[in-house]
TrEMBL record:
Self-association and partners: Part of the 50S ribosomal subunit; part of the 5S rRNA/L5/L18/L25 subcomplex. Contacts the 5S and 23S rRNAs.
Keyword Cytoplasm applies: no
InterPro entries: Ribosomal_L18 (IPR057268), Ribosomal_uL18_bac-type (IPR004389), Ribosomal_uL18_bac/plant/anim (IPR005484)
Pfam families in the record: Ribosomal_L18p
Family according to the record: Belongs to the universal ribosomal protein uL18 family.
Top-level taxon of the source organism: Bacteria
Keyword terms of this UniProt record: Ribonucleoprotein, Ribosomal protein, RNA-binding, rRNA-binding
Protein name per its UniProtKB record: Large ribosomal subunit protein uL18
Membrane-spanning segments: none
Compositional bias of kind Basic and acidic residues: 139-173
This protein's encoding gene: rplR
CDD domains reported for this sequence: Ribosomal_L18_L5e
Residue ranges of the region described as Disordered: 130-173
GO CC terms of this entry: ribosome
């Protein structure tokens, strides 16, 4: 099987794995996200009736976006979708990331939608994940963090000698 077919098969398996636990109802529709290299789109789907309740995309002149394939565009699409959902009286949705990882544009869309009033992610847990990361990036001088007695890289016995020494010790016993 060639590489592209294998990649599509893996993506399909991920999509099915995510979808088997998420189901959209009229009260809590499924927020489905589709991402391409140039654009991002999202829609609220009622799986019970097979109906799309609201949708937003970065494609077309109506979107008002110059580039649709970046985090800023994804956040804008999330805000537009939340506004459309509010107009229909929807405040909660279950997030369906599809075959995509929850980071970058996908996460930006979910966070923007949640901040705009359509609850689909837990913002507190996301902020907790990002807080330790920001704290660990605080020291700018890497040399100040190292202990003074630490050996520079590349010094010491090569691995080959150590392995041979262990082998000869085993033969003696």
């Amino acid at each position: 099987m060639n590489a592209q077919k294998h990649k599509l098969k893996r993506a399909e398996r991920r999509r099915y794995r995510v979808r088997k636990i998420i189901y959209g109802t009229p009260a809590k529709p499924r927020l489905s996200v589709n991402r391409s290299n140039l654009h991002i789109s999202a829609q609220l789907i009622d799986d019970l009736n097979g109906v799309t309740l609201a949708a937003a995309t970065s494609q077309g002149k109506a979107s008002g976006l110059k580039h649709g394939g970046n985090v800023k565009a994804a956040a804008e699409v999330g805000k537009k979708l939340a506004e459309a959902a509010k107009a229909k009286g929807i405040t909660v949705a279950s997030f369906d990331r599809g075959a995509f990882r929850f980071h970058g544009r996908i996460a930006a869309l979910a966070v923007a939608a949640t901040e705009a009033g359509l609850v689909c992610t837990d913002l507190e847990s996301m902020k907790a994940k990002l807080a330790p990361k920001a704290a660990s990036e605080a020291p700018a001088d890497k040399k100040a963090d190292k202990p003074k007695d630490a050996k520079p890289k590349g010094e010491g016995k090569p691995k080959g000698e150590f392995a041979m020494k262990k082998k000869s010790e085993g033969d003696k016993k």
